[in-house]
Automatic annotation (TrEMBL):
The keyword Hydrolase applies. Keywords: Hydrolase. Belongs to the RutC family. SUPFAM superfamilies: YjgF-like. GO terms for molecular function: deaminase activity. Its EC number is 3.5.4.-. This is Enamine/imine deaminase. GO terms for cellular component: cytosol. It holds the Pfam family Ribonuc_L-PSP. InterPro entries: RutC-like_sf, YjgF/YER057c/UK114. CDD domains: YjgF_YER057c_UK114_family. The gene is yabJ_1.
Length: 129
């Protein structure tokens, strides 16, 4: 069975409706779409620390809605707009995941919204299988 979260209810910059699910669950797996440091369709002000915290927290909020916790995170993808943000992002990452660090990839990329970081997460929990 496949369950979709946040279909049609997500808003991007400028209150634009986003054409994808916030997350999709299938056979114990949860795939959380890339999250940016956005509140109510607007990117927050602040540097890489504040933006990283919010991007990760946005993922965790979606996971919680689906019944998953930090201990269920298997893999994270991180997109930074500047390699110089790497160490600062790692500090935030350690704050969130010191007990259950997931596997991770981090790369530098241009993002389609004007922010410094985007994060997506893949989770697994046997109870949803």
């Amino acid at each position: 069975m496949i369950k979709r979260y946040g279909v049609g209810g997500s808003k991007g910059t400028g209150e634009q409706a986003l054409p994808f699910s916030k997350a999709v669950a299938a056979d114990g797996w949860l795939y959380v779409s890339g999250q940016t440091p956005m509140i109510d369709g607007e990117i927050i002000d602040g540097g890489i620390i504040a933006q990283s915290k919010l991007a990760i927290q946005n993922c965790l909020d979606i996971m919680a809605e689906a019944g998953y916790g930090k201990e269920d995170i298997v893999h994270m993808k991180v997109f930074l707009t500047d390699a110089r943000y790497f160490q600062s992002f790692n500090k935030v990452f350690k704050e969130f995941f010191h007990e259950h660090p997931p596997a991770r990839v981090c790369c530098v990329a241009d993002l389609v919204v004007d922010c410094m970081v985007e994060v997506d997460i893949t989770c697994f929990n046997q109870k949803f299988k």
